Amino acid sequence: MQDSSELLGHRYRFVPATGAGQSAASRPALLLLHGTGGDEADLLPLGELLLPGAPLLSPRGTVSEHGAPRFFRRLAPGVFDVEDLVQRTHALADFVQAAVERHGVADRPVVAVGYSNGANIAASLLLLRPGLLAGAVLWRAMVPLEPEPLPDLTGTPVLLGAARFDPLIPNDDVERLAALLRESGASVALRWHDTGHGLTQDDVREAAAWLATRWTEEESTR
Ligand code: MLT
Question: Which of 93, 107, 119, 165 would bridge 129 by S-S if both were Cys, CB 3.0 to 4.6 A apart?
Answer without folding.
Answer: 93
